[in-house]
């Protein structure tokens, strides 16, 4: 019942649209009342004027839209429809309301009756959505049917060219565009009007009237047993036979069901190409014009009975349903593909945004890296400048140390020379004392004093010799320090940080050296004082010894440890410290 309702709604939609003169989607209530009355009449539905007046009462404001008309149409008309009305009459009533307004004024090769049949075929093949259109696949199917009925050859390339020029904004053709397409003869060139009309009628009979096969055959009567030519029409559940093909004088029906069967008969009584149709209560003998027709009819009737057994619809309706299902499936797959494409596009856009974000982060990181590199280069330049400054300072200090070492060496030579002079004077003093000892034996006290002074001088001499050895070792140590400083300069050029650390250590040691220098200086002053006192005493007694003056009063040697006043113990201590540092490096 749902399929019948959908088919009826398509024809009613055309009628409603035709009544909508200003294309506003609404129709006046008076026109809808007339339309409803006519529908009830042709559909053989009891007319309910009370419900009609109640639904379209005069106090309603304005016209009624399609959505406003549908509740009444469904409840009071379509739900009461039975399959006992004349479908052709129903379609013709709807056609009458719409064709004058919409049919093209251009000259067509088909008549109005043919246009009506094309209109009905359109409703059968169109999609179940509004506004109604017929898709290119169904257009191709219909045109192939018409071409086959006209006995022509199908031009696939011509139709493909037509589809290429098809408007991209349209999914299909309206019924009036389809009538114009067929009526202009674009796909039936070389065919006359009568041939096109016969082809439309044949396709109409097959698709709309469910005519599976038709043609003239001889039928044997049941009472007189005579043979009479009849026009047979095979439908899904019945075979009707008429006097002629105009279908005006119907002579009878052969009802078909799953219990019927068809059998071939041998020739007899001068009749050829015989076959038998067995029904529940009757048997029909029929003679075809030739063996080919006989076989075609037997096969067609057998296929019809088989479909009845399976409960399946006629082939053309089943094929239409399969095509619709296939289109729905393809549409669903296309929608799914579009959805996936949108998802992929969205994912791609997200990925692009992520890549853009990453790119921006990389650019920011590159900018920061460039800034850091700039800062690093600036720091490196500053460190190099500082290192160069420190290096120049170290060179200047080394030069000053070399000058101080040279000065210290000169002072040491002078000091050694004075020590040598003192030793020579001491030898002379010993000789003089030996001579005087013989002359002054009586002066025992003086001689004892002289002996004591000699012992003290000997002690001083030993001390001076010790100082001499220490000065020699200091000279050697100074040379080693010079070589070590040269090595340290090379090492300082390779490792600035280590040199700075060593400079801090050397500063500390310099302060210690200053303290040691002060101690040694005090010792030297004490020794000088003692020597002066001793010489004064000797001069008082003997008058032979010349006063030995201390070294030059020039500024003492200054190294990176401070004023130099070295002892053997200090030099050995510093040598052990340097070796320990080298070992740790």
Main sheet, how many strands, which sense, barrel?
7 strands, antiparallel
How far apart the termini lie comes to 105 Å
- Uncertain runs are 542-548
Indicate the mean pLDDT.
83
Our estimate of the beta-strand percent is 5-15%
Number of DSSP helical runs: 15
The order of strands across the largest sheet is: 6-5-4-3-9-8-7
The string of secondary-structure elements, in order, is: HEHHEHHHHHHHEEEEEEEHHHHEEH
Count of beta strands: 11
Shape: rod-shaped
Helix/strand-derived class? alpha+beta
Rg from alpha-carbon coordinates:
68 Å
How many domain modules?
4
Keywords: Cell membrane, Cell projection, Coiled coil, Cytoplasm, DNA-binding, Membrane, Nucleus, Phosphoprotein
GO cellular component, one term: lamellipodium
Pfam family, one: PH
Organism: Molossus molossus
What is shown here, in short?
With 585 residues, the chain is an alpha+beta fold. 66% of the residues lie in helices and 9% in strands. A 7-stranded antiparallel sheet has the order 6-5-4-3-9-8-7, with helices on one face. Strands 1-2 form a two-stranded antiparallel ribbon.
Task: Set out the fold topology.
Blueprint: H1 2-19, E1 26-27, H2 29-42, H3 49-55, E2 64-65, H4 66-76, H5 87-102, H6 112-125, H7 136-150, H8 156-164, H9 175-183, H10 193-207, E3 213-220, E4 227-235, E5 238-242, E6 250-255, E7 261-265, E8 274-278, E9 283-287, H11 291-310, H12 315-439, H13 444-494, H14 496-541, E10 558-559, E11 562-563, H15 568-584
Antiparallel strand pairs: 1-2, 3-4, 3-9, 4-5, 5-6, 7-8, 8-9, 10-11
Protein name: Switch-associated protein 70
Subcellular location: Cell membrane; Cell projection, Lamellipodium; Cytoplasm; Nucleus
GO molecular function: DNA binding
């Amino acid at each position: 019942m749902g399929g019948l309702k959908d088919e009826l709604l398509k024809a009613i939609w055309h009628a409603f649209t035709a009544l909508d003169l200003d294309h506003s989607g609404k129709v006046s209530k008076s026109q809808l009342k007339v339309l409803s009355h006519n529908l009830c009449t042709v559909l053989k539905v009891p007319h309910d004027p009370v419900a009609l007046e109640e639904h379209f009462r005069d106090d309603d404001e304005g016209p009624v839209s399609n959505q406003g008309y549908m509740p009444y149409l469904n409840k009071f008309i379509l739900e009461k429809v039975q399959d006992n009305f004349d479908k052709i009459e129903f379609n013709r009533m709807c056609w009458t309301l719409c064709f004058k307004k919409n049919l093209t004024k251009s000259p067509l090769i088909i008549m109005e009756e043919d246009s009506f049949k094309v209109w009905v075929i359109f409703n059968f093949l169109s999609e179940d959505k509004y506004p109604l259109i017929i898709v290119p696949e169904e257009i191709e199917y219909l045109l192939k049917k018409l071409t086959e009925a006209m006995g022509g050859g199908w031009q696939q390339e011509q139709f493909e060219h037509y589809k290429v020029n098809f408007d991209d904004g349209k999914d299909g053709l309206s019924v009036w565009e389809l009538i114009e397409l067929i009526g202009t003869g674009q796909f039936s060139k070389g065919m006359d009007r009568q041939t096109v009309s016969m082809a439309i009628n044949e396709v109409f009979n097959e698709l709309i009237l469910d005519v599976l096969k038709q043609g003239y055959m001889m039928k044997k009567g049941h009472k007189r047993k005579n043979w009479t030519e009849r026009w047979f029409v095979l439908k899904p559940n019945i075979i009707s036979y008429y006097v002629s093909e105009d279908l005006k004088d119907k002579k009878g029906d052969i009802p078909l069901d799953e219990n019927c069967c068809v059998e071939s008969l041998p020739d007899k009584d001068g009749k050829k190409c015989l076959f038998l149709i067995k029904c529940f209560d009757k048997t029909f003998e029929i003679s075809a014009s030739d063996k080919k027709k006989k076989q075609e009819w037997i096969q067609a009737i057998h296929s019809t009975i088989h479909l009845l057994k399976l409960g399946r619809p006629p082939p053309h309706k089943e094929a239409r349903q399969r095509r619709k299902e296939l289109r729905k499936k393809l549409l669903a797959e296309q929608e799914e593909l579009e959805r996936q494409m949108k998802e992929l596009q969205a994912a791609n856009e997200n990925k692009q945004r992520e890549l853009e974000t990453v790119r921006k982060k990389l650019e920011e990181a590159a900018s920061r890296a460039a800034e850091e590199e700039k800062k690093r280069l600036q720091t490196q330049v500053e460190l190099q400048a500082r290192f160069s400054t420190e290096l120049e300072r170290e060179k200047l200090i080394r030069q000053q140390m070399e000058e101080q070492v040279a000065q210290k060496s000169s002072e040491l030579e002078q000091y050694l020379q004075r020590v040598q002079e003192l030793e020579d004077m001491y030898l002379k003093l010993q000789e003089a004392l030996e001579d005087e000892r013989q002359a002054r034996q009586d002066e025992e006290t003086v001689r004892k004093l002289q002996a004591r002074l000699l012992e003290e001088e000997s002690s001083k001499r030993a001390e001076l010799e010790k100082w001499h050895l220490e000065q020699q070792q200091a000279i050697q140590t100074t040379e080693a320090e010079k070589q070590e400083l040269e090595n340290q300069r090379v090492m300082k050029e390779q490792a600035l940080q280590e040199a700075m650390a060593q400079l801090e250590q050397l500063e500390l040691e310099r302060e210690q050296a200053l303290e040691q220098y002060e101690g040694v200086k005090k010792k030297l002053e004490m020794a000088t004082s003692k020597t002066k006192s001793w010489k004064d005493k000797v001069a008082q007694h003997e008058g032979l010894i010349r006063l030995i003056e201390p070294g030059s009063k020039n500024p003492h040697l200054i190294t990176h440890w401070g004023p130099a006043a070295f002892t053997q113990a200090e030099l050995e201590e510093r040598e052990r410290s340097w070796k320990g540092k080298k070992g740790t490096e």
